[in-house]
Amino acid sequence: MITGGSGLPKDSLQLTAMIMAYILINGIFYLMVLSIKTDKYRSLLFVIYAVCFVITFISNLVEVRGSMIVTQEDMVQGHTPFCHMVIPMIIVPAALTRTIIFPGSMLEGFAAIGTMLVLWLGASIVLGRGWCSWACFYGGLDEGFSRIAKKPTIKNINKKWTYLPFAILLVIVLTSAATLSPTYCAWLCPFKAVTEFEEISSSTILLQTIIFFSLFIGLVIVLPILTKRRIQCGLFCPMGAFQSLTNKFNIFEVRIDPEKCAQCNLCVKTCPTFSLDEESVRSGKSRITCTKCGKCIDSCPKQAVSFHIKGTPLGVNFEAARLIFIYPAFLFLAVMGSGMITGAIYRALLLATTGSMIK
Amino acid sequence: MKYMKGFLLGLANGTFCLAYCAPILVPYLLSEAKDTKRNYIILSYFLSGRLLGYFAFAVLAWITNVTVIQNLANRTAILGVVYIALAILLMVYGFINKEQHCAAGLFGTLKNKMSDRYQALLPAALGLLTGLNLCPPFLLAFAAAAANDSLWNCILFFLAFFIGTSVYFTPLTAIGLFRRHDFLRPIGRLAVGALGVYYIYFGFVTIQRSIHSLWIPAETIRVQAEVRLKRLSLPCPCS
After folding, report:
1. CB contact under 8 A, B231 and A73
2. Which of A76, A167, A178 is the closest to B19 by Cβ?
3. Contacts of B175 (CB under 8 A, 6+ apart)
4. H helices within chain A, ranges in order?
5. Does A14 lie at the interface with B, CB-CB under 8 angstroms?
6. Per-residue confidence at B239, pLDDT binned at 50, 70, 90?
7. Which value does ipTM take for this structure?
8. Do the beta carbons of residue A104 and residue A116 sit within 8 Å?
9. Alpha-carbon span B237 to B224, nearest angstrom
């Protein structure tokens, strides 16, 4: 899977990078299974994956286009890479007009629309909103920043803000249908700052670029450091809100055993996406927004929190449920991440040997 | 026959009007969490405001004989101001919690009285501001209305156009069926506020564009367009 089905590379640097990525991914999985700590090792690989994604993506763009800037020509020719953030915005216009409102390619080239849709659909069926902690290539960035500080500076966040991602989802779905353009990508995506952005040829595009960078600094760097939570994922991302709906039909969930629970609320305090509250502790169920990261499971001193397969008895064979979940979840993380990690290691090796990350 | 044309124009382009108004109406109706019957009343306030906006344009069309609106700079400037007014209204509604300030005493009573009136005023104001939206079908109607000889004919033409477009709004009242889902209320309210932020961007960008088009000579704009189209390898329609 790491080779992407194309066999081992002939270039020695690429082969070295691939072997290093293989050892890293398998080593982390081995430790995850062995130590019974899901989040500890997941987060490590998830953050590496996100950082490597940025390195690989930008290097590829610079190699192909000469810069991170996407021009009008690239858009007209459908050379814009498609990312999963666009999915909620394309559904209504596709149903009404039979058109994908994104300047990308359906099947050809890097990050084609069809490839991304198939990956997302598969992950949604298997993981539900687990996508956001096991497959999303952006999530690791704010997760990484949320783990920098030892203690949170901002502790109390009004619960009403947990509805904001759903509100933004509603707004972008309606405005995209009205304007037949992906409004989130045009105005709100913080990750444009670390992927690609439009050529600044007008004051409107300048304003949009300022917004992208401000949102990135605010939501992905500053607030996660201050709150020790994944603010972008938990309080802003409309794709996350959309993905929450898939938790309804997904068989995996996180449950709290009321008999073991000491009501210490440590799980509530540590949940990075605000998916546990006092009501969840009482009812024993996480909220619909749970990303199945496993942080609450790792942090519970009484082992009252566990992965659970819907329809099976609670508190029985929780290690089996964990393994049944982490095998497919980790597989997605490895499939999505291996190419990025290999790519980033290769770029680092290239830099070390030739003095440039670009071929 | 003239009014029939207005009605058919509205009927043919009503989906465009719905597309422009639904982003405001849907979150607003969700946030109010009223039943279907009550939603009809809210919708009637909204549509009344929109009708008022249409009549304002009917008068303008008759007085100016289209010249003001045909000027690109004026058109975008008006639109920008309308967007900003709409944005302020949406943000106040979406982000300021009216219940929070409802303390007892004189202020509380006054606030409650205001709230009762505000229930009718807000959708009407939203309707008025979206009614002033210069979307393409509306401009078509505007041009047709301006060709009418009297003010009365102009107003009747816009009334016919309004009735034609309003047909498409009635299904939105079905949002009332979801009112028992409590979580939809804060989502709707925050969505209204977020939409306000979106329209603020839009308003400023639109005004900035109109100022830009006033200051840049037409020849420069033509040359810029030619350069851009050349880069896209497309023929320039202006040459």
Report:
1. yes
2. A178
3. B26, B29, B30, B39
4. 12-35, 38-65, 72-76, 87-97, 113-127, 131-134, 139-146, 164-179, 183-187, 203-215, 223-227, 231-235, 238-244, 266-270, 278-283, 295-299, 318-354
5. no
6. very low
7. 0.86
8. no
9. 13
